[in-house]
Amino acid sequence: MRLYHCLLFIAFFTACGTAKKSSTPVLTPYSYTNQKNITAGKGAVVSAHPLASQAGLLVLQQGGNAVDAAIATQLALAVVYPGAGNIGGGGFLVAHLKDGRNITLDYREKAPAAGHRDMYLDAAGNASTDKSQNGHLAAGVPGTIAGLFASMPYAKLSFEKLITPAILLAEKGFVLTEREARSLNNLQEDLKKYNTQPNAFMKNTPWKAGDTLVQTDLARTLQRVKEKGAAGFYEGETAKLIVAEMQRGKGIITLEDLKKYTAQPREPHVFDYKTYTIVGMPMPSSGGLLLHQMMKMIEPYQISTMGFQSAEAVQLMVEAERRAYADRAEYMGDKDFYPVPEKALAATAYLTDRMKTFTPGKASNSNDIKPGVVPVPEHEETTHLSVIDNEGNAVAVTTTLNGGYGSRTVVGGAGFFLNNEMDDFSIKPGVPNMYGAVGGEANAIKPGKRMLSSMTPTIVLQNNKPYLVVGTPGGTTIPTSVFQTLVNIIEFNLSTIDAVNKPKFHHQWLPDRVDIENDFSSATAIALEMMGYKLYKRGAIGRTEVIKVLPNGKFEAVADKRGDDDARGW
Ligand code: GLY
Fold this sequence. Notes:
By secondary structure, the protein is an alpha+beta fold. 35% of the residues lie in helices and 15% in strands.
């Protein structure tokens, strides 16, 4: 049976006629391993799953460009990485195109028309994060499928071709890794709690590495999208299934919400750091502006002479992170609904002024509003992919359901998880969301508004040519992980592998503490404690995927060691 399936996959791609002979394997859903880094000349893809990276690579080999590969990789992730890859969530795309243009696409979820600022408050005014995080009411109107179609004008191949690997993976199945089996086992209780219909992820006996996950309902949904385009999701059968699911669980997304959803091209957030130009996502992601603020706050200091992760360097970066995240809580949100003072927050004079209170060797503190130490979330799930081709296109996409498996509600009969992105709004001023982030009016819920994100898909240019394609999952730790990865490469001259895999740290203003990974230097940790910082040891921060363009023009693609992440190229 397995051999038959392998042959079927190979036959499909051979039948497509254009797959070039290469030592790189074709889609191998029943036998695959991780590849953590590769150097390639024609194109490269890095994503959270080997089969998704393979799907992107196949598309490049079939004559597609980086945008084609990004679309195929996202669709494959929706099948093989259901905890964060998605069609029931949303994301952002940042691209540098071969003609020199920088573009971004916003396909973030929106609040349904029946959403309102107090929808998660009880009669006494108490906030219920249970409702904003779990089950039907936690879901925003999904944006991913609209985003993929909004990407198509920059692609070369047909959508039918780009979606086919995902349909095959859903229909014929793929084998689970150890990590995925464990993750699905941890999900079983929530699946029972938040679903009334059968779905592919529920199982009475534990999932094991090597089990095959077949997603027939999802294959049918993807087939409808293949046949009818975005209307195959936002209208007709799929839309009806989503609304029926909403009705079963007191959710509020309607047929009208779905029909009205559009992805939005946005003006990229661009700034210079030394000799580099950094292209990022504007609102409703805080990522581009936070990265801008943090990079510019450290720029006047000689950080390269302080040494990688010396206490001096970490303190400087932590204080930049603290100040940027304080602004995030107060000022940032969907600028279609709230006047975010982006220019003022990024002005050099303002950022210089912010660092006037920075005292080397002594911790600042964030306690001008009530502190609230919240536990680190168990699942900061989102996923990032970086793609590049030899035509001059580079694409960074970060996409999410918010928490791992989103709301943990699968649309009955349609086979995909709905997001729990409503929790990224500020459901009540000062009430922390699942990442411990607080907010206020700027990020309050309004019908049709997009919730503030931290996703930071980023492209660094040198002489208007791609140099780095970067991004990561990790909730509020996303901008600080991207910040550190850039500083590691640009200032500390770390190899790409070290820049990705060396321990990360994180400060987000509130709670007032520095989160550090378990393998963070204990000498630096002790020095920081002596300066007055509270440290909090935790598990992995992010899963960063980087492509670097080497001086000889080749692409060095590096997948994070922290997961099943995988780099492919040819
Ligand atoms: N849901 C995580 C983010 O958008 O920041």
